[in-house]
Structure formats: structure tokens, C-alpha cells
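HUMAN: Ready with one sample?

ASSISTANT:
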Amino acid sequence: MTGILERPAAPGRPELHLESDRLGWLASGPPAQRGPGVVRRWLSRHGRTLAFLLPVLAIAAVVQAMNMGGSPQRIDDEGTYTAQAWSVLKLGELAHYTYWYDHPPLGWLQIAAYTGLTGAFDRYDIAVVAAREAMLVATLIAVALVWVLARRLHLSRAMAAVAALVFAISPLAVQFHRTVYLDNVAVPWLLGAFILATSRKHQLVGFAGSAAAFGIAVLSKETFLLALPFLAWTMWRAARKETRRYTLPVAATIVVVIGFTYVLFAAIKGELIPGPDRVSLLGGVFFQLGSRVASGSLFDPGSLSAKTLGMWWQLDAALLVAGAVAAVAGLFISRLRVIAAMTVFLGLFMLRPGGYLPVPYVIMLLPFMTILIMGVTGAAIRRFRRRSTVEAGAPRRRLLGGRAAGAVWVAAVLAAAVVAVPNTATQLRGFLLADLDKPVRQAQQWVQTNVPKESRVIVDDAMWVDLVESGFDRDNVIWYYKMDTDSAVQAQSPNGWRDADYIVTTDSMRTFPTTFPEVKGAIDNSELVATFGSGTQAVEVRRIDADGLDAAAEQAAGRTAARAALGEQLLLNPSLSVSAEAAQTVSDGQLDSRALLALGQVLATTPVRLESTPVLDGETGDVRRTMVLRTGTAAGDSRLADSIRSIQGDYAADRVEQTAAGVRVTYSVVEPDVVR
């Protein structure tokens, strides 16, 4: 069967090219300052394209940008890529820890370039949101390129627009497009590679550009190398026989040269092959191909593979099913055969036994699945609408069978749309309105406000940059993954988790493999001091007890008893009046010892009422470190505030505020041993 790229143009109809009829404006840009006549002709020529594409881009921009910092919740992986991009700009280093060749660096170098050129890190309080803005730009470029590739594969403008729209607003797509993944950076380059590989004019330049784009895609995310055979197949089908002997070798050479730059980079640094106490490129490759823990069987509900596929399924089951079926159907349509074969291969590779399934793997599949769904739908509609007359050389049975197949597919797509539209509306409402990242922000703010800057804190990488920029020493903010894997971090912590003061746990950390003993030891030997959110969204701030929880519990019991004894004495003071709630807190030994001592001092000169001992947001309330006092007059409250501010040293208050409710006194989270 003759491929669509090899067929001659229909009689009386000019052959379509990107440089001419098909989106030449994307190749050369609109004419600038050539006169109103030229502009009118350009708009007349490309008006229909703009009418279809611009609304899709506008919708994609709104869906991607609105509430992009609120949903989904920040995760560790995107924090890592953000921190690496930040390190390139702020520290002049390739990564915030030792770069160990787990991924090629070109992906976060592009994020760094965008954030550096736009000042994104300076415009946002949360570093990950700055990197998410880069994902927004990458997604909009990818949406436009999905349109172009769909048109190159002879989809109608309407079908190309729907493919681009589904790629932009599917809940599965929004979830992953908003997240800072290197795959999002690589997708536009891969799409560009396939578009340039279909060049019919100037093929040497087109194929060279395709090879360069593919090389950049692979150095942005190494898993995109899986698409190489299918890109080569596309070039082979598109290449003219008389020029194939040099266009294809040139493209192959460019791919090899770009890939070799990564090898050369490692060789120059002396990190090509493994050695003692040295990272290496080959070590990183061996880890990715053989050392990673397998994701398990899809039929095991507890496996990573099952959980990953389950998450995809929950987000957009209709797209996954339609995309899989369209990939198989596309094998029988010449113009779709290459990307259909690639999608089938990528799907089977994902399901291979004993392999590792990355959570963002679906990002690579999304643009091709949406094109295939609409490409097969377009072909089905054409068959369905075909008149039931016998075409020249076509038996009636074959014609009617084709119409029936087309009708079945169109009906199936409509049924999938009926299922998908309500789900999409519900999911998008969550993306646009829900603030799932609030617990992370609250925990981060709590740490920045309450934890002494000299403390060592083990954190999810999602907040690493923000804590460092808030004043914590970068060596004292420890990405939890490095506790058991980085010799440099281990050298700074000779006693392991005992050298840390706090650990901020997220769901990824709490479900971290127990084979990492330092992280597990830190969690197991820590007490909860503040928690934000609930369920899998919960973020906990825990204080690590170097002597273990048993010893910490014994010490805490002693402090509580001492506070209770001191509090009982204060309650007998006739100059102190207390609300019922505050009296219970004091007698139970729950009021911070510094507050008790401050009360004892001011009661010597001033009658005071202890109005309340509020629990701060997120805190457990086991120890109340805030109290509200009143004297009965504004002038008396002012003198009371000054008196408490005069207390220094271990007894000093962290904040003293005069409010309408009284003098609000708050102490730091670290309570010294002032009572025993």
C-alpha cells in the first residue's frame, strides 16, 4: 500500500506543504510592516487556521494558568527539577546536590533559561510555581505543534482543533502538564522532530532540524529515545528516493553527534566510567536500566504499576481506552501507521514484566493518542458518509463493511465523549478552584516562622529552594532522599538522623521505601508538633529526638509535671484572674514554661487576667506557647506589653502584640529547660 507521504497530489489539486498552504505562517511568521494589502492577503489565506487554532490556545492558556499554584499539590520530583534549575541560576552549579547522571541536564537547563530570562523565581514566593510557569509555556507550544502535526497527517482543521483541545484540557493532561516534569520540556521537541521529518521541500534542512530537535528531546528526558525507530521510519517514508542517500545519513549523524556531547561532557569531567567515591555516566545508565526497583505487576493492587495506572485511569479513563483502541485501528490507516505503531510499542513497553514504570510516562503518549483518536474518527466519518455506490474497483461488500466499521467507531467515540465530558468538567473544576497545595504552604510558612534558622531540617524537595531563600543554610536543609544516598550529606551528618532537628513529612516521604534507614529512623524517632491538611495531602512537622522517643516521652512527662506544679502556684495568686479554659490549661501543665515565668514576673507589680491560651494553626496543643493577657485598660496593656518585652535570654517572647483582645504573647517552638 502506498503511504500517504508517497502519493502524488490528486489531479487538479495542488500538493500541500507546510511552507505554503499548510500553516506557512508557523514556519515563517506573519509579515511585518509590509503594508495593509499584504496583511489582508495573509489573513485571508490563514484566517481559517487562526479561527480554529487561536481559541484552542486561549482555552489551553486559561486552563493551564488558572490556579496552577494551587492544584495539584507540589510533589518531590518537581521540587527536584526546580531546585536544579534554581541552582544553575543562583549557585552556578548543575544541581543543588552532587549531579550523578540520573537524567541528562538539558531539561532543567531549559527551565533555568526561561526562569532566568523572565525573572520567574523573583516573581513568585514559591519556587515550584515559577517552574510551573515554564511548563505552561511548554504546553502552549506543544498544543500548537499537535495542531501542526495533525494537519501534516491530513486531519481536517476541525479534527486537528479537537485533538489539540483534548490534549490541552483532558484532566489527565492538566494534572501532568502543570507538574514540573522533564517530559513536558521534551514533548515540544519530539513533536517538532516529527513535523520536520515529514518535510517534502528542503528535506536536507528539514531532516537536519528534525534530528537536532530529537536530540534535544532525548537530552531533556532520556526515555524519549524510545521514539527513535519511529522517527527514522517517518523520515524513510517522506524522503525522496533520489536524495535519501544523503538526507538520512546527515540526520543520523546529527543525532549521534548531539548524543555524543553528553558522553563527552562526562568524559571531560572524568565521570564516564564508575570509580570509588565517584559518580559516573555509566553508573547512572546502569541504575536506570537495571538497578531501579521494578514497579511490579499490574495485577497486583499494591504495586507501583497498578497505582500509577489507577491514577491515570481515575483522571481520564475514556482518553486511555480511546487512545489504546485508536492506536490499534491506526495501524490500518497508512497516514497514521507510524505514530500508531509507536503508541502501541510505548504501551507494550510500559506493561513489560519486571520493568520500572515512571509516573509521568503517560506525558509522552498524550499528544499522539489525541491525534490518533481524531485521525481515526475523521477516517471513520469519511467512510460512514460515503455513498453506498460501488466505486471503481471496490466490491460492494468491502464498501458496506467499511461504512459499518466507520459507524461503529463514530458511535463509540460519541459514547466515550458522553462519559468523558462530565468527568472532565468535574476534574477541571477541581484544578481551577481547589487549593491542594495549601498544606504544603502552611507547613513551609510554619517552619520559616518558628524553626530557628540554625536548625537542620529534613524536607521534601518541593520546599528546598524556598527554605534556603528564607535564610536557612543550604547544608542544613536536607532533601530526604539524600540522607541515605549521598556521601557528601552523610559526611555532614556523622550521626545520621540524630544530627537533624526537624523533619517535614509529606505523603511521598511517609511511603518512602523502608530500605532507607536514616529517613525511617528520623520519622520513627520524632514527635508531631504541627500538622496541616489531612489524608494523603497532609504535611507534618515533626521534632526529632536524638535520644529516641522513649527518652523524649519521659522528659516530656517531667516537664509537664513541673509546669503543672508551677501553674498551680500561680493560680493561687490573688492578682491573677483566669478564664475557665485557661485555668484548665495551666493546671494540666500545658502552658509553656516561659509564659508561666513571665506571668510570675508581671504579677509582682500588675493585676492581670489570663484570657486565653489559643492553639496556633496546625499545632497539636499539647504545649500552648501563646497566651492573651488583659489589664482592663489600654494604658495598662501597653505597660504590660513593654514589661514582657523587657524579659530577655531564654525567657524572651518571640512576638508581643497589643490587640483589641489584649496583649498576645507568643514564644518560639523550642522550649528551653527552664523548669525541671
